[in-house]
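Hi, here's the filled form for the chain we discussed.

Project: internal
Contact: R.S.
Residues: 128
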Amino acid sequence: GKEELAGLLTAIELAVQTDEAAMLAGYEESVALWLDGLAAIPGTTVFRSYPSEAGQPHGRAAITLDPSFPLTKDEVVAALWDRDPRIAVGEIGTDTFALNPQTLETGEDRIVLEAVREVLTSAAEGKS
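And the returned structure, exactly as it came back:
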């Protein structure tokens, strides 16, 4: 129908106007921010994961919780989801979750960093 064609045309126009290199560089800046900001939390290992969960050509920050960490991955994921604003993360296996910059607006990577940092440091310090 006409509506589908208009939507397809808009999507193509947006894709042609997008500076993919700049977009990917912005994603990498967010991943670097998360890696730096979460690096020293006891009981966690933070690393850059590539490609994204759907195979897109950009990195993401992955956080693995050591077996001794006071919360399980599922408890951390739930705590992030229950925040305002909600923080959705990707889940990798039984002990790792990932932060993907792809759906964020400018500046929202810092909101994600502060939320994840608060949940993890509170748990690591025994305040959960």
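Let me know if anything looks off before we file it.
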